[in-house]
Amino acid sequence: xxxxxxxxxxxxxxxxxxxxxxxxxxxQLGPIARHEPRSSVVARLVALLxxxxxxxxxxxxxxxxxxxxxxxxxxxxxxxxxxxxxFYETEMPGPDTSRLFDRAKELGVGFxxxxxxxxxxxxxxxxxxxxxxxxSTVGKYRKVHLPGHREYEPWREFQHLERRYFELGDSxxxxxxxxxxxxxxxCNDRRWPETYRSLALAGAELILIGYNTxxxxxPDPSQNRLQGFHNHLVMQAGAYQNGxxxxxxxxxxxxxxxxxxxxxxxxxxxxxxxxxxxxxxxEIATADIDLAICAKFTQTLFQFERYRRPEVxxxxxxxxxxxxxPTTNKGHQDG
Length: 335
Ligand code: CDV
Hints:
This protein has a single domain, classed as Carbon-nitrogen hydrolase (Nitrilase/N-carbamoyl-D-aminoacid amidohydrolase, 4-Layer Sandwich). It is built from eight helices and 14 strands. It has helices spanning 38-54, 98-107, 162-165, 193-201, 227-242, 294-298, 304-307, 315-318; strands at 21-28, 59-61, 110-118, 124-131, 137-142, 174-177, 180-186, 206-211, 245-250, 253-255, 258-260, 265-267, 273-276, 283-290. It is globular. It binds 3-methyl-2-ureido-butyric acid. 3-methyl-2-ureido-butyric acid binds next to loops.
């Protein structure tokens, strides 16, 4: 019998962990026009940053692809006025974004920012970074779950060509920052339980997620009315089941004819929403959080070391799609 064979000890029997307070903001953006210059978008990001700083915020989270319009909605070969490469950043900070880095450093506010990345050797990723309060980049995440399609699909009202314009990221990492452990995920990642569990296994206490979610889901429009519900459902479940905070941040509103979900929010490890944006435009929502509270969950119901059964979960990493039982249960164990 080992210590882990007993039930989780009552938390009251431990000395409470010292508080690790942090004030965070969801820095939601409204639409970005097709030809809106970076300088204008960065000015909007800086305005949100300054508002957050005035409110005592220490970390602000911006949306996925926060520097440009959501360009995967176009098949650029059909759009003579669009230059695909112009949507990617080849350096970070670059000529336009350095203003955001400089101002954030001056104000002592960290941030997380989504953008389209082009590497020096020509690889393209849907990327999110974490920048500390001193302006240094702590971590970089490249979107793992890329939704949509690769080829032009004329039946759609608009395209979703992330699988054409980006390569797949291949790791969920977490970094020590902001007096805790922080992980990142991007948009469609938030719908997958594997995202939160991978990050929680890397120790994450705070997960930062940017998103662009069109209200119209072309493969099955009956899901349109559920966009807001599903958005909160997955992030609240991810927070609770992994004992961590989640900050989910939209680029919402009507962008180039496509209406996208807003409803950015900050979620506690209880699974409850602590703060939420109320418009679909540029707006901040803030919350005072305490990373020490995560242990209330990760040391009781979700004490992974004690209760997880990885020896039973082998198929989670060896098998991609479902393999249902044979058409008849004859001969199948337990009928
Ligand atoms: N940017 C995204 O990843 N959007 C997807 C849509 C296409 C379903 C999302 O999961 O919100």
